[in-house]
Amino acid sequence: MSLQKTEFLIKSLETLFKTSEDLLFIKDANLTYINCSLSFAMLVNKKSAEEVIGRTDFDLFDHELAKRYIEDDKSLMESEVSIVNNIEPIPDENGRKKYSSTSKHLIRDDDNSVIGILGIARDVTAQIELEEEKEKSELSTTMFKDILEADLMKNQMIRAEGDLWKNLIKNYERVDFSKMVSLISTGYIHEDYVEEFNLFYDLNHLIDNYNRGIKEFSHITFMRTDNKDYRWIEFKSKMYMSKVTNSLRLVSFLQDSDEEIKLKQRLTAKAQHDDLTDLLNRQSMKDKINECLLDNPNQSNALLFIDLDFFKNINDTYGHLFGDEILISAAQKLKESFPNELVGRIGGDEFIVLVEDVTDIEKVKQQAENIVSLLKIHSDNGDILVTCSVGITLFTYGGDFDQVLDQADKAMYHAKQKGRNQVSFYLEDSLR
Q: Same domain for 236 and 305?
């Protein structure tokens, strides 16, 4: 292999390990870590791969988890059969168990001797919980008896069957299809979804879709049912050309999808939030900041990086449960101080706040200084237990998340170097 190609492969591997959301790691034959992805390092509460290299599982995980991982690795090396998509527990940043789908493969040298293990893991907690919740609730979707049928070319109702319609309209034959859509939207559809429903079932829109080859489709809306409660209802529809009347027909039947949709909403929200504080997690904040970097080129934004001072002393002195209470309290104060901004916890005692469309940087600075004051926590005898340091960076269109986060992080460390319990802006010249 040429030197140029080797260098290219090394750079490619470095990029993969830096950017992949999957948990990637490499161990040598002695089961010592020699490299890992940034996401894996963060899983074990390290800020970089360099802090993981040279350690073993017993250095990074609790004893029982480490023992399980080591036994799996030894079994792999003895059997020489790859482990593929094995579901196993992993800790999150709060020490609570989540689940990953893990695959492990042997690495061999030119003599076919085993020199290490490549591991690839992916967080599948949401999928596991979805299956568990389905089993617990015996989730099922119920098909309504309610059916609508219309002649679109004549704009005429043909059929409206089911209890849902009986109090809405008595003589549906005398009502045209467009009027029926209007009656449904004003009498049953939640006000937030009326416009969308009317546009979707607009007569000209439906005919145009049929001419473009769209003959089957569905529309989900929030709709009042017999018991006056609003539920998520799916209108499943099909359009066809009637051979008898030589006209375009529409048939729609309704399916109650409320339980399934609400379950997905809960799991989606859970996947986007930090379990302990209910703030947005690192990935969610990354997605939001990337949106700012890709949209609105004339808009200025600010990122605040908040780190609690002396927090390790809290855990060491008072225990992790008390430490969790401090983190929850800090999160609540951040949400109260930034009611219109996105607030996230990105790990340990580190928080970030995204302030979009900044027109007054002094206002942002004042909010940051208020946080410094609010997050000052005293013990019963008046001693200061925890303060916070805040770094602020401004950013606009372009760049990337890692760059913006690194600037805010450097500003925060500059605040710590100046004595903690204060705010610092990212200014390249002053941070060199």
A: no
